[in-house]
Amino acid sequence: MNQPKRIDGRRIADDQVNQVAHRVRALTDADKRPPGLAVVMVGDNPASDVYVRNKIRRCEQAGILSVEHRLSEQTTETDLLGLLGDLNQDEQIDGILVQLPLPKHLDEGRILKQISPAKDVDGFHPVNVGLLGIGDKRALVPCTPAGCVILAKEELGDLTGKHVVVVGRSNIVGKPAAQLFLAEDCSVTIVHSRSSNGAELARQADILVVAVGRPQMVDASWVKPGAVVIDVGINRISTEEGTRLVGDVDFDQVAPIAAAITPVPGGVGPMTIAGLLNNTLTAYEAREQD
Ligand code: NAD
């Protein structure tokens, strides 16, 4: 088979950010306020710190106002719920993101439910999960799976009738990915840790989306020749030279048989932040129309 095509998530994410920037400029040129995103981080987690800084940098590039709230590790649930209540009322803020994971003493489910569904740019609030489930276009949808759909469409165009196998059933990636591909009129199969024949099911996929958090688990035996492979995994592994990032797919084994494949890094990862900017602008537009 010919050299597989690497799906360039960085370029596609840049295009998305530029489109958001263009639309935001049109707003501010018309003397309207820019969309605003509040990012809340609790405690010191080096990985979260990198993610938060990237999100804020991308917001600035797109002309979105970003407001950062860094709270100490000891923050109480009452204080955090209070801050979210204030942000829900803040007229300048259209999107609220609480960076996960939270310190153990905070109840993540309770915190995420405190965010107004209209400002829930991560798409994790049960109201948005429900809207996505019934195919309501008003849903704010989780950013990473939304990025997977955009990458698949960039590669294949119309997805109608494609068989998508999603490996992983988490609430933040696997399940919403399945719903979003269903909304594109795909046939969708979900493979998970209790599936007895995961590789066999995966081999039927035209589009294989992998989100399991296990480095290089999916090898060539999981992939139909000519499939499009979207690797959501981000895993840091040790090598003789130090450490490096790898996905959940064994890239070197799978790339020769896939029609196209996302690299790690540089595939799905950049799309997640682009999705956040898209959602912030969508939330702004919905609030301005109210
Ligand atoms: P998770 O741990 O919440 O869920 C993992 C899922 O994989 C589970 O549903 C489980 O059933 C399934 N699974 C585990 N072992 C399996 C097996 N042997 N066969 C089939 N399924 C199996 O993880 P998550 O939050 O969905 O994240 C998955 C990966 O995606 C991680 O590497 C994470 O770092 C990465 N991620 C990347 C982004 C991004 O921006 N690119 C965003 C979120 C998550």
**Residue runs with pLDDT of under 50 for 5 or more positions:** none
The end-to-end span amounts to: 53 Å
Order of helices and strands: EHEHEHEHHHEHEHEEEEHEH
CATH fold-level topology of the largest domain: Rossmann fold
Query: Count of DSSP helices?
Result: 10
Strand arrangement, largest sheet?
1-11-8-7-5-6
Number of strands: 11
Helix content: 40-55%
Small-molecule binders here are: nicotinamide-adenine-dinucleotide
Query: How many structural domains does the protein architecture include?
Result: 2
CATH class of the largest domain: Alpha Beta
Question: Taking Cα atoms only, what radius of gyration do you get, to the nearest Å?
Answer: 19 Å
Averaged pLDDT: 96
DSSP strand (E) fraction? 15-25%
CATH architecture of the largest domain: 3-Layer(aba) Sandwich
The assigned structural class equals alpha/beta
Shape: globular
Largest sheet: 6 strands, parallel
CATH superfamily of the largest domain: NAD(P)-binding Rossmann-like Domain
